[in-house]
Amino acid sequence: MIDNFTPSPFAAELTGAGVPEHLHGWLGQFGIGALVVKMGIRFLEMSPERTVATMPVEGNTQVAGILHGGAHVVLAETLGSFSAAMHAGPNRHAVGIEVNATHHRSIAKGLVTGTCTAIHLGGTLTTHEIVMTDEQGRRLSTARITSMLRDNNRA
């Protein structure tokens, strides 16, 4: 258990990923996850209603030199999952139960921005739409994730 006086073992990771200070207590025991770090995802905004982050294309490409379709989905699921977990609140957690994505345009370099917007914030389910855009604001892909909210003491 992390208290307010013990530094989080993930403090540098959270700060480096742009996680707002007020969320460090919540994420201090877990960090943001190795895949999020590896993909270079950096948060700009975080709330249940709207979460925004960037991800570099470099290092996340497929053999043809464009951003891997799975990287789009990793960004989308990361944003939707964090938003759902914030909505779940204390003593609850979110479990993704469905994710889908449509790829509209490829990108070979630069930075991708994912903007996650809540479609439904219920007591047991959340649904978020995530739109990935390039630096010119062109839509690269659209994803949707539905998460189930569960109590921490349930298996």
Automatic annotation (TrEMBL):
- Could you tell me which residue ranges the Thioesterase domain spans? 65-139
**Which SUPFAM superfamilies does its entry note?**
Thioesterase/thiol ester dehydrase-isomerase (SSF54637)
Q: Which Gene3D superfamilies match?
A: Hotdog Thioesterase
Instruction: Reply yes or no: does the keyword Transmembrane apply.
Output: no
InterPro entries linked: HotDog_dom_sf, PAAI_dom, Thioestr_dom
Q: Note the superkingdom of the native organism.
A: Bacteria
One Pfam family per UniProt: 4HBT
* Record bears the keyword Hydrolase: yes
Q: What GO MF annotations does this protein's record show?
A: 1,4-dihydroxy-2-naphthoyl-CoA thioesterase activity
Q: Which UniProt keywords apply?
A: Hydrolase
A GO CC annotation recorded here is: cytosol
Q: Which family does it belong to?
A: Belongs to the thioesterase PaaI family.
Q: What is this protein called?
A: Thioesterase superfamily protein
